[in-house]
Write a structure and sequence with these properties.
Blueprint (H helix, E strand, L loop, with lengths): L3 H4 L12 H6 L17 H12 L13 H4 L21 E3 L6 E4 L1 E7 L6 E17 L6 E7 L3 E8 L4 E9 L3 E6 L5 E6 L4 E5 L4 E6 L6 E6 L5 E6 L4 E5 L5 E5 L6 E6 L5 E6 L4 E5 L4 H5 L4 E2 L2 E5 L6 E6 L3 E6 L3 E6 L5 E6 L5 E7 L4 E6 L3 E6 L5 E5 L7
Parallel strand pairs: 15-19
Antiparallel strand pairs: 1-2, 2-3, 3-4, 4-5, 5-6, 6-7, 8-9, 9-10, 10-11, 12-13, 13-14, 14-15, 16-17, 17-18, 18-20, 21-22, 22-23, 23-24, 25-26, 26-27, 27-28
């Protein structure tokens, strides 16, 4: 039931009672009836399907081979709660390039905060239940969000942060998008999700350039190289992969974690990659393409250079600055390590639940961390002190 062409295999036009599609939605047996594990369709809904089949099951779109997710009009998401009864996990954070605004993923919305005071600066609705990735364009005029309703629909939303509204939905999938990145030139968006694919979209409009399908499980993070020519992705399949951003071709694969890889970032010089995984380690591995790799038809396997350990559990979040790397996960703390020597520097403590997201703005000397309990902490890199607040409008502390 993903395209009209495939849907016709379950339909006999003009004969609903002989069409498998209609027999399944009209079945009395709960074990056979569709939709699976949900309530039955209403009599009016079933009557509409019956009438459509009786009239010949015609298709009124432009391309009968297009995925139905792109044909069906966008759903109107319910508004976010006026006041949160409880805080939602903060799975996504992003600083505006000027450092004056911190965007956080909320429930059916993105919330905007003043990082200097921790006060709410704006709310942008029209998103799916969960936002798992956020990225500002280099000039700050655009905010890209990876969101969706798990198991139902995934969407990439392009937002005008100044106007506080969604301006485009350039990509849609059958499951939630989990990660997003914008290249340093502001010309491309990369988005990965639970459908195991990576979508490459051209800016400003979001036209889809290509879909990369090289992972065998959820794509948990995507990031561009400093020159914007390559993309590194990580997956629940236990691998990290590097792709050519222009062509989508696979350049190399890293399998060193052996368990789900939650995040990866290119080093500032682009010659290496830091990655964080469920193996309770952060790995540093090679990434610079060689002449032999470029001329070879077979992608190369990357080699581990070093590992950072000492974590008490999986490492979910990772950001890199010019001098330090910051990582966090189930330890409820944020760890600072030197670049490139990987020496431990500081530990930022204060969260009471696992840390799911990080954002860094070196210009203002601030690091933001988001917890599973809905708390956001904004740390001063100069002194280590932090302001803390629940990223949940209307919720009493």
């Amino acid at each position: 039931m993903t395209t009209y062409h495939s849907l016709l295999e379950e339909i006999e036009p003009e004969k609903p009672d002989r069409s498998k599609l209609f027999r399944l939605i009209d079945a009395e047996s709960v074990s056979r009836r569709m939709p699976k594990d949900k309530g039955p369709l209403t009599e009016d809904q079933k009557s509409t399907v019956r009438r459509w089949i009786e009239e010949g099951a015609r298709f009124d779109g432009e391309d009968p081979g297009a995925p139905l997710l792109r044909v069906v009009p966008p759903r109107d998401h319910p508004p976010p709660p006026e006041a949160y009864p409880r805080a939602a996990p903060v799975a996504a954070l992003a600083f505006h390039p000027a450092g004056t605004v911190l965007a956080a993923g909320g429930y059916r919305e993105v919330t905007l905060w003043d990082p200097a005071t921790g006060k709410l600066a704006g709310r942008i609705g029209g998103l799916g239940e969960r936002t798992a990735g956020l990225a500002f364009s280099p000039d700050g005029s655009l905010l890209a969000a990876a969101c969706g309703n798990p198991g139902e629909v995934g969407e990439v939303k392009l937002i005008d942060p100044a106007a506080g509204r969604v301006i485009a939905r350039p990509a849609v999938a059958g499951d939630a998008f989990l990660s997003i990145a914008i290249d340093p030139g502001g010309t491309r968006v990369a988005a990965g999700g639970a459908d195991r694919s990576i979508r490459i979209l051209a800016l400003p409009g979001g036209r889809e350039e290509r879909t990369i399908e090289q992972h065998t499980d959820w794509v948990l993070s995507v990031a561009f190289s400093p020159d914007g020519k390559r993309i590194v992705s990580t997956s629940r399949d236990g691998t990290a992969k590097i792709f050519n951003a222009a062509t989508g071709e696979l350049e190399s694969t890293y399998t060193g974690h052996g368990q789900p890889v939650f995040a990866a970032r290119f080093s500032p010089d682009g010659a290496g990659v830091w990655s964080a995984g469920a193996d309770r380690q952060v790995h540093l591995w090679t990434s610079a393409p060689s002449i032999s790799t470029a001329m070879s038809e077979k992608p190369k396997d990357e080699k581990q250079l070093a590992a950072v350990d000492g974590y008490g559990g999986p490492v979910f979040a990772l950001v890199l600055g010019t001098r330090f790397a910051y990582s966090a996960g189930t330890d409820t703390a944020v760890f600072e390590h030197g670049l490139p020597d990987r020496k431990p520097a500081r530990v930022f403590r204060g969260h009471r639940a696992r840390v799911l997201s990080l954002a860094l703005h070196e210009g203002t000397g601030r690091l933001a961390s988001g917890g599973q309990d809905g708390e956001v902490r904004i740390w001063s890199l100069a002194g280590g002190a932090a302001a803390a607040f629940p990223a949940a409008p209307g919720l009493e502390r």
